[in-house]
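Morning!

This is the sequence you dropped in the shared folder:
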Amino acid sequence: MCHRVDDVMRLCCELSANQQIQTTVKGSGKGAAAAGGLAFAGGLIGGPLGIAVGGAVGGLLGCWMTSGQFKPLPQIIMELSPLQQQKLYEGLMAVMGDIQWTDLVQLTALVMGNATLKQQLTATLLGYISKELQTQVHYVD
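The structure's back. Tokens below.
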């Protein structure tokens, strides 16, 4: 059973890597608040030039505050605890039904060859990541 969980987790990594999905740990609003707050304070103190300076300083502060919070989804998946992986696996298996496979290559081919199944699995994965891990999902351009 363990190799089946590993196969499904690696499939999730493949799905998310193909779509270039990143996640953001909640709290990125802090960075935006810092940038906006300092721009506002700079505007009160220095007028238009103060807005520019405050916005620049606030942007740098916001960048520092949120550094390391953006991660590729495959990295998040591989860092899940065994209990979290099992829960995700169960949710994905409910979508996959009685699909049988012998190895990761076969599983990947089965899923990638079925656009509906691929979309349903991706939606289930993103739902789990958003709800259980309280992250926001972004597609990289």
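Headline: The radius of gyration is 20 Å.

More detail when I'm at my desk.
O.
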